[in-house]
Design goal:
Blueprint (H helix, E strand, L loop, with lengths): L1 H6 L2 H44 L1
Length: 54
């Protein structure tokens, strides 16, 4: 029973995919939180420039 658990790789592969998915989600959240504010500030600045110029 124990040797079967050590030899089979299906569970290991599933765990690896789950870890990669979790890491990707954390990276995406970090990128959006860092660059999201800066991107919003750029759009606000451009919008205000267009409103005052028009």
């Amino acid at each position: 029973m124990m040797t079967r658990l050590l030899v089979e790789e299906e569970g290991q592969t599933m765990v690896e995919y789950a870890l990669l998915t979790a890491l990707s989600a954390v990276a995406a959240i970090a990128i959006v939180s860092v660059f999201g504010r800066k991107t919003r500030d750029v759009f606000v600045t451009v919008n205000m420039s267009l409103v005052t110029a028009g």
